Hints:
The structure is a single chain. The chain is an alpha/beta fold. The protein is built from 11 helices and 13 strands. It has helices at 16-26, 41-51, 67-77, 90-102, 116-133, 169-177, 199-209, 258-269, 286-294, 311-318, 328-337, and strands spanning 7-12, 32-38, 55-59, 81-86, 106-109, 160-165, 187-192, 213-216, 227-230, 238-239, 245-246, 273-277, 298-301. The strands form 3 sheets. It has a 6-stranded parallel sheet with strand order 8-9-7-6-12-13, sandwiched between helices. Helix 4 crosses helix 7. It starts with 6 loop residues before the first strand and ends in a 7-residue tail after the last helix. The active site is at 166, 193, 284.
Amino acid sequence: MTGRPRTRVLVADDSPTLRQALRVLLEEDPRIQVVAEASDGAEAVAAARSVGPDVVTMDVVMPGLDGLRATEEIMAVAPTRIIVISQLATREQSLAFRALAAGAVELLPKPQAAGPDDLRRWGLAVREAVSLMSEVPVVTRRAAPGATPARAARPRTLDAVGLAASTGGPQAVVAILSSLPARLPLTILVAQHIASGFVDGMRRWFSESTPLEVRVARDGERPRPGCVYLAPPGCNLLWARSGLLATPPCTDSICPSGDALLGSLAEALGPRAGGVVLSGMGEDGARGLLAIRRAGGLALAQSAATSVVDGMPRAADALGAAEARPAPAEVAVLLVAACPAAAG
Length: 344
């Protein structure tokens, strides 16, 4: 084979059946090579150090060293791209989201059934994620020391802000929420691309990071200041012109749509709308953010230096949609500045 080198993958899972299924299905793609397998976290750490894989698929519940601690150790001694693979049970989801916080870049569910067709569909989803993640730079991104803090083009007062995010987005959302005060006269709406089975686990993780209430939105609900709303599984999240929240089913592969969320805020709230496009692949959110900027609202895109994947913020910047590109903690400062009555 000529051209680009094959993506070298380490598969870590305590189930021999799942490891074998992944090996077979991953290597059906000639661009991918499984270079090692591990049946527990300690073996995963050792293999990561010895073979230097491009991508690791990491089960979270394994005997001995679990996937969370293995992720922490790998990111400390042999940093690489880690795709966490988790059951949908509460304990597993908690470990999975903590692994994202420790440096993993993506989260996928385990197959919900064990039939051959189910394993194949699951393996193909993992294969697609491996191919995408192989493009993600292996760096721990930090804001440059001494960098000039981002500033909004002009002061304004907001009623609501929408956050659009994909790969690397949950970490950015947590960084923003953890920097906000308890009494915030602002409604926050989040369109985070994630497998539908993880929405409630994400809500719990976000809730642990902030004094604000975090809820999964209900269709027709009246949004409240000081509350963070997540799109329900399989649905978009919109701010209707009536002032109520709407959660229509997603109609395309991008779910929930950042463009739809931000565009609805621009249409309903005009200059009192805010939008932030956070880390992620592709271009979702760019057009919606441009609508907010044209309406006179606050339009931000996460800085390249702090994004796990700069695709979505860069696309927004290229459209001229972003008036500033702050780090997540700076986003929080700008949001509080747009809410003069906010208090800690």
